[in-house]
Design goal:
By secondary structure, the chain is of the alpha/beta class. Helix content is about 35%, strand content about 20%.
């Protein structure tokens, strides 16, 4: 310790915000808590023992969704689609076309382009859109909505579409700020003897490759450290202006503890140079977020209220003017994103007219729409059109078609879904499930995976067998068997529209004469 103190520069202690830590992850903290924990025998002898609050670590649980296995579009550097990659299977031409659109979006020099994903139900249209969202990353705005959403909002249809468009346009704002960046050496918390008697105080030791400093901590800073679960060995940055703490990862010096960490743990180098430095911070916000903040009295808190309401055009004009000034001064950049509208055939003629005009704006995002309809009526009119979209809007769209999956591709998708849902299934059961999906639909066969796993678990088997698939197949009907059931027993249902054969009139007359 003396040698280390002699070689490191010691900076004066500085007062940072008010943060408080409630747990210590280093060995000394654990020993200290163990020393103050009364034994069960002492509690029995003393009558009422000291109650020790048990703190449980809550782990975020990600639910398994229909497209949670999608990680990207599965393309290589030359935009060629791999057969199986990043959760995507098949649809080679559609994924290549989506990759071209993706490269256009990343360039950020285009606006007003529109793409139509057209295909049969269950051919992966929404999966391709989700793959585009994953491939773009978190900084590029990606807004999703269904065509029927605009009819259920308490605002006009054009206002709902305007807000959706501005959600898909980002503004990258650059600013310089003073930060403290270093590796956490030690966290010491001074807890008061009685709860609530005095605020918690503590010390935080940070180091770089050239220096080490001890900072005093207040109540709020300790709470922030506890919230971020910062422990010794983490590399963190602290914003001096706001006190915000960001955990960058674990230091490579702690890589020997990898077995005790999760697979998602990120290791980074210990920072070099001074602890305090000026850094350019980049924030990406959407135009809609700026609209809400400037149109509500509660400011940014309106973003969490949910009900944003209609925003006056004057507010948007002022914001567009201010963003234009920031662009000229070099303080901000426009990040055109993607607006994905699923079931676009649910829009009416007024919405299609609005989209025609909105796509001509230089601030428009890339519009991606999807539909599974053929030649059908345009909503709000009596005219028929391909996909239920007016011809003038179809002329603006780049149309990408999806094709039904082959039996081999169905098998690969089922393998991926079994792995995603953590279900062990025998090869024969997978073959049977693939045959069911080929004869009925992919969605139906995917829904049988978890149901079959529950049946197998009930008979205390770790692997799903053919008998489990057969049982759930008999329990849950697909569309074809359900329709056949309805036709056979339609006379026992109310309000059926299938005509029933009328009884013989002569037989009825004879019966009346007998009565």
């Amino acid at each position: 310790n003396v040698a280390r103190c002699a070689t490191h520069l010691r900076a004066p202690r500085q007062k940072l915000g008010t943060v408080r830590l409630t747990c210590l992850d280093d060995r000394r903290g654990k020993e200290r808590r163990r020393a103050f924990r009364p034994s069960s025998g002492a509690m029995a002898e003393g009558g009422e023992g000291v109650k020790v609050a048990e703190v449980k670590d809550l782990t975020r649980i990600e639910r398994i969704g229909a497209h949670s296995h999608i990680r990207g579009l599965g393309l290589d550097d030359s935009l060629e689609a791999r057969k199986v990659s990043q959760g995507m299977v098949g649809q080679v031409n559609a994924r290549k076309a989506a990759g071209v659109i993706l490269s256009m979006i990343r360039e950020g020099m285009i606006a007003g382009r529109a793409v139509l994903l057209a295909g049969q139900p269950g051919t992966g249209k929404t999966a391709i859109a989700m793959g585009m969202a994953k491939a773009l990353g978190e900084e590029t705005p990606f807004a999703m909505m269904a065509g029927s959403e605009i009819f259920s909002m308490e605002m006009s249809k054009t206002e709902a579409l305007t807000q959706a468009f501005r959600k898909a346009i980002g503004v990258r704002i650059k600013e310089e700020t003073e930060i403290i960046e270093g590796e956490v050496v030690e966290i010491e918390i001074d807890r008061p003897a009685a709860s609530g008697a005095a605020p918690k105080m503590g010390k935080l030791t940070l180091k770089t490759t050239e220096m080490e400093t001890v900072y005093d901590l207040g109540q709020k800073m300790i709470e922030s450290l506890n919230k971020e679960k910062v422990s010794a060995g983490d590399v963190v940055t602290i914003d001096k202006a706001s006190g915000r703490i960001t955990k960058l990862g674990r230091s490579f010096a702690r890589s020997r503890d990898y077995d005790a960490m999760g697979a998602q743990t990120k290791f980074v180098q210990c920072p070099e140079g001074e602890l305090q430095k000026r850094k350019e911070v980049v924030h990406v916000v959407t135009l809609h977020e700026i609209d809400v903040i400037n149109s509500r009295t509660q400011g940014f808190l309106a973003l969490f209220a949910g009900d944003t309401g209609e925003i006056r055009p004057e507010v948007r004009e002022q914001i567009d003017g201010k963003v234009a000034e920031w662009r000229e001064e070099g303080k901000a950049e426009i990040v055109p994103g993607v607006l994905f509208i699923d079931e676009v055939h649910m829009l009416d003629i007024e919405c299609f007219s609005f989209l025609n005009r909105a796509l001509e704006n230089d601030m428009a995002p890339v519009l991606v729409v999807a539909t599974n309809r053929g030649i059908t009526k345009i909503r709000g009119t009596n005219y028929k059109s391909p996909h239920g979209i007016p011809i003038d809007l179809l002329d603006r769209l780049l149309i990408v078609t999806t094709v039904p999956y082959t039996e081999r591709e169905l098998r690969l998708i089922l393998d991926i879904r079994c792995e995603e849902e953590d279900v062990e299934m025998s090869e024969d059961a997978k073959d049977l499930l693939c045959k069911i999906g080929h004869e009925t639909s992919l969605r139906y066969s995917i829904q049988l995976i978890t149901a079959a796993a529950l049946v197998a678990h009930k008979r205390k088997s770790a692997e799903v067998e053919i008998e489990d698939i057969s049982r759930v197949y008999s329990m849950f009907l697909d569309v074809q068997r359900s329709t056949q059931f309805m036709v056979e027993y339609q006379d026992q249902f109310m309000f059926n529209e299938v005509p029933v054969a009328a009884p013989d009139a002569g037989a009825g007359a004879d019966g009346m004469d007998e009565d």
